[in-house]
Design goal:
Strand content: 15-25%
Shape: globular
Radius of gyration: 34 Å
Distance between the termini: 33 Å
Helix content: 10-25%
Bound molecules: flavin-adenine dinucleotide
């Protein structure tokens, strides 16, 4: 075997396109005999062995466990002798026997390699996304002797400038890539030759003197290239760290914490329900205080001034303060002040039974999560200590005079109640001067509250070891001055100002982090306790919950019936059309089961429309009766704010027609209504971007939106759809199923931005295979012209080639955007964030007694999201603790097959620091799918590797709208893979796939753990 032999990902089933490495059964360097099993891989169906029918030694580069590798790509190599064995991270060999599909290494330089070459210095892949690098500098000269581990050059990757190390010995030789030239990953940058006399000194460039523009020749980095290995591996001989007090931690996180000596109480968990993951531990700081203290060199020598009189010797504490204050003169400080209104915090602290001082400390620590540098400090010489534990020193008057500064530890992670208990003990001991050294040493931040003493303004002095101190003065008309004095070597003025503004937010709106401290409906003589503006899913669910709790609630809706967009122009009418399209589609598959005589269908549009409209009207009428029955005062009219406790309800445009969106009124008729609290649930109509001709088309009716498509008198024969979101995709396929030739144009490079990438990609391919549906992405729409029935759409494709589409109508499905101006939000002081109303997870706006729910606050614009947020707002108004959690939200796109999701994709989970694994099954292996000819798509489960909790389930499958119910319970109930695996699913149903997937993933995790151990 002259060249390494590539062991490739085998195709172990006919549907398999890729596999996951589950375990390596042999180690790098092991002698391999014919027929040996070297690895196990997970296919789309099962975990299977990879056998090798050659002899040799297992060599790198080797794909790591858990990586996904395409069929035919190399997973490791066999070499002829033990001496040729390469490590797991070695570069892909230049030529590989039996490896046609593995891309070839870049060509050798034109001039050929110098005589005596022992090594090619190649452009390394220094990040998983890097495909090429720019030579920044050569750190060694031609002819230099190179030892193993020498840095020979620096290169700029897509992320940073990094060193190129060489792990061979030899003499650096040309031809050498020029500084500033671009070299593809794996491309040769220079050579090492055996002897000094073999060094080639002329010819500074590779590739014939041109700059090394080897981009096009670059071997694509293997699609499966693993992310950089985690720096810490577990050592099972170390006992896991103790469970943290206030949150869960995964067993792996505890193991790592023990090894890395990380205090889990100080670590913020980013896993489900705040659980600490291994990734959190890796990012955390060790328990120890910094030990790298430079030798004490006085920054300057203070002159000792001769002072008359007979001084007494200072006490130890006075001396310590004196020295520390003198040392603080070395800090280059500045001051920044912001005023905050403390009323809400004082009230909330009282309601929770905690001291205001502790509540302020907690608010300071929370604000530091957004501005961490406030908690760092300067360490001589020229070092910064970046800390994640927030230990706040706060002065207490000691009995007999003097100030003592106990330190309240772990303010960032400990619960408010715990901190309050700790503080009580500290104050008690501080008063008696009985603090232990660890109770006053090393604060990371300081707070000085002279406001209690009636001081209207002051600033305080930070001590070395902290970057900043907060001075709290007493509240005046403008509020309470909060002054930060900060060390400019660590924090700049803008950071301090931003920190203060975040802190001000936490002080003025404590419910956001302390939870409700009681009902949020202000007391007063209002017409209604709560007015809900908008009668869609968000407003109606909110109003019903409030009414059921005896709250006097008015629901103001500008339509004659509730239901909003969902009932009248959205979910329900579109699913009526979808149901008819399903019937047509399913009939076409009848022949597959031998059912004859049913396949020729004909759509009676008038009948379908009659059914659709009657369902909407029946549902609208039922909803109105229920609303009135539960004692909601339903008011028809368009509301706008006159103050933060009063709206005007404009009834001038009230109409009886429920199907169309209501026209705008002129304010000539209506009533003024006062309220204690308000909930804005006004939705988001379709948004039409400024495309030439779009407005004219809207006016003529040739361009339709999701508001107006319902006026069609017959389904179009040729249709253009702009926008590949849920609405565009659903409409495109429905009209194709009704017989139209449909072209869908999407500006972005993919459709369905909210859907898991593989699901969206497969759906695009499936729909593109349909006879009369074309999807084009990365397009640019240039112009729309024509009249209804004869429209023209000019567009450029992804390569800039111009096209014109002739169609009967254009559906503009380019998103939804709230229309906020008519609400006159400024009159109530409600802040907006871009195009939507700003609201927190409890659906509170910037005004504590005004809430925003549903489409009007952005995020997922879905009916069930609006409904959930309506219930969250109602709960918060009632004083209950409830939050909307997007990470557990779900959605279904009603195409065939349906795309659906609940929870996080692996990509989203990883972005949140969760060590996620996924397992998937193609629908093509399922018997029921085969029977029904519904074999397109897949189901995927995403789980937290450490806790085994299911954090996401993703579908491209017919019947996903039903199957997702179980997945929603898995994610919302924090179910584990074990629970899903052990559940008894009935046969033959597609729910069995969930158990199958869970068991398969557990088996993979078990095996890879065993091998690692
Ligand atoms: C074609 C289409 C298909 C869809 N399919 C689905 C689906 O399958 N699943 C899904 O979950 N979602 C779907 N949606 C989205 C869903 O319709 C919305 O997300 C949902 O209706 C939002 O609810 P909402 O309560 O926030 O607002 P809306 O339902 O828009 O309700 C707001 C109500 O407030 C009224 N209003 C506005 N301003 C005022 C004012 N100042 N005073 C009084 N009244 C006012 C409006 O007229 C409206 O009646 C679809 C949308 C469309 C367009």
């Amino acid at each position: 075997m002259s060249e390494p032999y590539a062991i490739k990902m085998p195709q172990l089933s006919d549907t398999m396109t890729e596999g996951v490495i589950v375990s390596w059964e042999k180690n790098i360097g092991d002698k391999i005999e014919r027929g040996d099993i070297v690895a196990t891989v997970e296919t789309d169906k099962a975990i299977m062995d990879v056998e090798v029918f050659r002899e040799g030694y297992l060599s790198g580069p080797q794909q790591p466990v858990d990586s996904t590798v395409h069929v035919g790509h190399a997973i490791a190599y066999l070499v002829a002798s033990a001496g040729e064995v390469q490590g797991a991270d070695a570069a892909v060999p230049a030529e590989t026997e039996g490896d046609a599909e593995v891309e070839a290494a870049p060509e050798a330089p034109k001039g050929g390699e110098p005589e005596g070459t022992v090594h090619h210095v190649k452009m390394p892949q220094l990040s998983d996304t890097m495909t090429e690098g720019v030579v920044v500098s050569w750190e060694k000269e031609l002819g230099d002797k190179i030892e193993r581990g020498t840095v020979v050059a620096t290169v700029e990757t897509d992320k940073a400038i990094m060193d190129v190390e060489v792990f061979r010995e030899g003499y650096l030789s040309g031809p050498m890539a020029e500084v500033d030239s671009v070299v593809a990953v794996g491309g040769t940058m220079a050579f090492l030759v055996e002897k000094p006399e073999q060094v080639v000194r002329e010819g500074f460039s590779l590739s014939g003197g041109a700059k090394a523009e080897s981009k096009s020749e670059a071997p694509a980095a293997p699609a499966t290239r693993p992310a950089a290995a985690a720096p810490v591996t577990t050592d099972s001989s170390v006992a896991p760290a103790a469970r943290p007090h206030n949150k869960p931690a995964t067993p792996y996180a505890r193991q790592l914490a023990a090894q890395m000596r990380v205090n889990l109480n100080n670590v913020k968990g980013t896993g489900p329900s705040g659980e600490i993951t291994a990734e959190d531990v890796r990012h955390a700081r060790p328990v120890e205080r910094p030990t790298e203290i430079a030798e004490q060199v006085p920054a300057h020598v203070m002159p000792e001034i001769q002072v008359p009189g007979h001084g007494r010797a200072m006490t130890a504490m006075e001396k310590a303060v004196s020295h520390s204050m003198t040392a603080s003169l070395t800090l280059p400080t500045f001051h920044v002040t912001v005023n905050a209104k403390p009323g809400a915090l004082i009230k909330a602290a009282k309601a929770k039974g905690v001291s205001v001082t502790v509540a302020i400390a907690k608010a300071c620590a929370l604000a530091m999560q957004k501005h961490p540098s406030m908690n760092w400090c300067y360490q001589p010489v020229d070092k910064l200590v970046e800390r994640s534990n927030v230990d706040i020193g706060m002065a207490v008057s000691a009995d007999g005079g003097g100030l003592v500064v106990p330190v309240l530890r772990n303010c960032e992670s400990a619960e408010l109640e715990e901190l309050n208990e700790a503080w009580k003990g500290l104050v008690d001991r501080a008063r008696k001067r009985r603090l232990a050294p660890e109770e006053y040493a090393n604060p990371t931040f300081m707070v000085s509250n002279m406001g209690m003493l009636g001081v209207s303004y002051f600033d305080a002095i930070p001590t070395p070891g902290t970057a900043a101190i907060l001075a709290i003065s007493s509240a005046g008309a403008e509020g309470m001055p909060l002054t930060i004095t900060a060390d400019h070597r660590v924090v700049n003025g803008a950071e301090a100002a931003m920190y203060l503004n975040t802190l001000k937010g936490y002080i003025e709106q404590p419910e956001e982090w302390m939870g409700p401290t009681g009902p949020a409906i202000p007391e007063g003589d209002w017409d209604y306790d709560v007015v809900v503006i908008g009668g869609g899913p968000g407003g109606e669910d909110c109003a019903r919950d409030l009414a059921e709790h005896g709250i006097k609630v008015a629901m103001i809706n500008d339509a004659p019936f509730p239901g909003g967009e969902c009932l009248w122009r959205g979910c329900i009418p579109s699913k009526a059309w979808r149901a008819a399209a399903d019937r047509i589609r399913d009939r076409a598959d009848d022949a597959h089961l031998g059912v004859e005589g049913t396949t020729k269908t004909k759509l009676d549009w008038a009948k379908l429309e009659q059914t659709r409209r009657s369902v909407l009207e029946t549902r609208g009428d039922m909803a109105l009766k229920t609303d009135k029955g539960v004692k909601i005062k339903v008011i028809q009219g368009f509301a706008w704010f006159e103050s933060d406790h009063r709206v005007f309800v404009d009834t001038s445009a009230n109409a009886d027609e429920p199907h169309a969106r209501q026209p705008a009124g002129d304010g000539s008729k209506g009533e003024h209504i006062t309220f204690g609290a308000a909930v804005i649930a006004t939705g988001a109509p379709p948004f039409v971007p400024p495309i030439e001709g779009a407005d004219k088309g809207l006016a003529s009716g040739g361009v339709l939106t999701s508001d107006t498509v319902w006026t069609l008198q017959a389904p179009p024969k040729r249709l253009g759809v702009i926008g590949g979101g849920a609405i565009g995709m659903e409409m495109a396929q429905i009209f194709q199923d009704f017989g139209a030739k449909v072209t869908l144009l999407e500006g972005r490079d993919r459709v369905l931005a909210e859907v898991e990438p593989e699901v969206a990609k497969q759906l695009t391919a499936v729909l593109n295979d349909e006879p009369n549906l074309d999807i084009h992405t990365s397009v640019k729409i240039k112009k729309i012209t024509g009249k209804p029935g004869a429209m023209k759409l000019a567009w450029d494709d992804s390569e800039g080639k111009a096209h014109t589409l002739s169609c009967d109508y254009v559906i503009m499905a380019t998103g939804k955007r709230p229309v906020l101006e008519p609400l006159r939000l400024a009159e109530a002081g409600v802040a907006v964030d871009g195009h939507v109303i700003k609201a927190d997870a409890r659906c509170r706006t910037s005004v504590p007694h005004i809430f925003g729910v549903g489409d009007v606050i952005g995020g997922y614009m879905l009916a069930h999201t609006a409904g959930q947020q309506g219930r969250v707002a109602a709960a918060t108004l009632l004083g209950e603790d409830m939050k909307y959690d997007q990470d557990k939200d779900s959605g279904v796109i009603f195409t065939r097959p349906q795309a659906a999701f609940v929870g996080l994709s692996a990509e989203q989970a990883k972005a949140k620091g969760i060590d996620a694994v996924e397992v998937k099954v193609p629908m093509s292996i399922d018997a029921k799918a085969m029977i029904n000819n519904e074999t397109h798509g897949l189901i995927k489960i995403v789980a937290d590797k450490a806790s085994h909790r299911v954090i996401g389930v993703h579908f491209l499958a017919d019947h996903a709208d039903t199957l997702i119910g179980e997945a929603v319970m898995m994610v919302s109930g924090n179910m584990s893979l074990e629970q899903v695996a052990h559940a008894i699913h009935p046969h033959p149903t597609q729910t069995e796939l969930f158990g199958e997937l869970a068991r398969r993933l557990l088996s993979r995790l078990r095996r890879s753990k065993k091998v690692k151990a």
